[in-house]
Amino acid sequence: MANLQDFSKEASNRVNRYFSKSFKRKKVQEIEKNISTVAEICREYEVSTTAVYKWLYKYSRNRKRGVKQVVELMSDTHKLKDLKARIRELEQMLGQKQFEIEFKDKMIDIAEEMYDIDIKKKLGSKPLPGSGSTGKATDGK
């Protein structure tokens, strides 16, 4: 029963909104040009899908010409474009990280030459004096 009361309160607090014909036409054109989707317009302007489809029925140029619009392919195209942009961004980040790694490796090489020490510990190399075990067990005292 509480859900019904919440719904009735929400319904009574709603303000009737009216959208101009030019606004509706503009949103229909955005849908036709694949700039926006019905769902995006519904979320953005808090309008029901029924209302947006009524706008499409009334103001769509394509409907009057009998042109059918395939929504699935447009959604896939939009997602594909977003994914390609994300791939470019990640490739750029990867390139920057690779550059940083190469820069740090070069700095280590220079430091090894300059100070005549082996900074990079290679597998199988002999430990530096003082870095091995002393053979004495310490009990913390």
Describe the structure in your own words.
This protein is mostly helical and 141 residues long. The protein folds into two domains: 17-68; 70-118. The protein has six helices and no strands. It has helices spanning 2-13, 21-32, 38-45, 49-59, 61-65, 71-115. It is rod-shaped.
Short description:
The protein is mainly α and 141 residues long. It contains 6 helices and no strands.
Distance between the termini: 71 Å
- Based on CA inertia axes, which overall geometry fits? rod-shaped
> In percent, how helical is the residue content?
55-70%
Main sheet specs? none
In what range is the share of β-strand residues? Answer: under 5%
| Derived structural class | mainly alpha
How many domain regions?
A: 2
The string of secondary-structure elements, in order, is HHHHHH
Q: What is the mean predicted local confidence, pLDDT?
A: 79
Low-confidence blocks of residues: none
The radius of gyration is 33 Å
Number of distinct helices: 6
The overall strand count is: 0
List keywords for this structure.
2 domains, 6 helices, rod-shaped, 66% helix, 141 residues
